[in-house]
Amino acid sequence: MSAPGHVDFYAIVLFLHIVAALAAFGVTFAYPIIDAAVRRIDLRSVPTYHEVQIQIGRRLITPAAIVVLAAGLYLALDRWKDAGSGWFTGAGIIIIVILGIEHAVLIPNARQLRDRAALDLQGSAGGTLALSADYERLARQRMIFGGVDQLLVVIAVFLMVVKPGA
């Protein structure tokens, strides 16, 4: 670990690791609030909101998570004793699982939500806007998997800060 006030390559990589983690996962904690606001303010914006989730997943979360993983590997390998620690292994597995959930579940789910919402809103009778039971089922799935992702992020942060077994 670098001494306070001392800037070296390790400190720069640590900085990049932390900033990438904030960029990748910070927004995921705001999604439930954004979802509620979009639904309350204008249901016609729901398909666009889900398209934004897709783009954030592909263009922000994925690249930033890869930086988190690469920087984390460097940080641990630079200090060889950390590379085999349980906290390091656990955090590494978590980031890979999060990326898997993002691409196998959350992005496809957001596509389905976008398309289902567009169909529901297009077919709303008499100008009354409503989302179908199918949409709500997909939204519950997203809430569950998004919650799992958020829990994994919190666990990874705990492991990185506390470093149990180190």
Note the main attributes of this structure.
166 residues; mainly alpha; 5 helices; elongated
Counted by DSSP, the helix tally is 5
Mean pLDDT over the residues: 91
Poorly predicted sequence stretches spanning 5 or more consecutive residues: none
Task: Report the span from N to C terminus.
Answer: 13 Å
Number of strands: 0
Rg measurement, Å: 19 Å
How many distinct folded domains?
1
Sheet/helix structural class: mainly alpha
**Roughly what fraction of the amino acids lie in strands?**
under 5%
The percent of residues in helical segments reads over 70%
What is the N-to-C order of secondary-structure elements (H for helix, E for strand)? HHHHH
Largest sheet: number of strands, sense, barrel closure: none
Shape: elongated
